[in-house]
Amino acid sequence: MDANSVTIPLAFLAGMLSFLSPCVLPLVPVYISYLSGNAAGETVIGRGHVFMHALCFVAGFTAIFMLLFGLPATYLGKALNQYSENIARLGGILVIVFGLHSLGLITIPALNMTRRVEIAHGGSPGYFRSALIGIAFAAGWSPCIGPLLGAVISMTFTQPTAGMFFTFVYAMGLALPFLLTALLITRATHLIRRLNRHARIVQRVSGVFLIVVGVLLATGQFTMMNSIFIRLTPEWLTNRL
Q1: pTM to 2 decimal places
Q2: Which of 41, 61, 67, 167 has the greatest number of CB atoms lying within 10 Å of its CB?
Q3: Number of domains forming the structure of the chain
Q4: Alpha-carbon distance 210 to 206, whole Å?
Q5: CA 76 – CA 160 distance, rounded (Å)
């Protein structure tokens, strides 16, 4: 297992926290409703079809995240490899600022801006339409989930050639709970409504997460965390990573 493999679970965790963020979680039932055709007054399709539409939705936003964020990070990482340590430390400072914003200690107006995705009603739900909704999701909500996504991009500078991969891991952290919601559509929507009551707590946890990652990056201690992670990881798992 590479010393930077700790970035994998951290990137995945950042994706899951993005799903639980106040700007994403409340709208998940709405997206599921559109994907199933329910919002348009259409015949409700089976759970398996809803899951397939959710897969297309996930593919749409994953592609955008990787192309808009992962690809540039990879190329910049390669081009600026000799400066990667300094860039990672500057990125750490920026991530700390993002964390303070998430905690409500400072306000960054640009990160409070979101574009609501308007989806036309009518017509049978198609897989291509679901992918387009995923693309619109990525484009419209990137400012809101930007702090967590920015943390992942900053972490990639500890391993400059892996921007695409870590962005993909982040997208999977965001995708997994969405897919589970689609699979367990009735039970999951009730759970989401209950989780919405604790949105502020999730936001604060995200803020603390960002500050911890930012401090590690800014102080050059991120590799130390990698070493601790490796020691705590069972040998059978280490051999498979």
Answers
A1: 0.76
A2: 167
A3: 1
A4: 6
A5: 8
